[in-house]
Write the structure tokens for this entry.
Amino acid sequence: MSEREEKFERMLQAVQEEYADTVRKMEKLKAENKSKTVTFKQLLSTKLTLQNILSRYKIYGLLE
């Protein structure tokens, strides 16, 4: 695997981990009935951004 491919894989893994962590935090806030807080809205924005990145990976065939 080339250095470039390794960097891509590390970035992909980091994005996937951050997405999963963001979703966990949002679920915790929802369970605490805090879905109207600024923190929740910031997490939602982050989730949508990460979701967009992962969708682009799929569009270009870089992610199943």
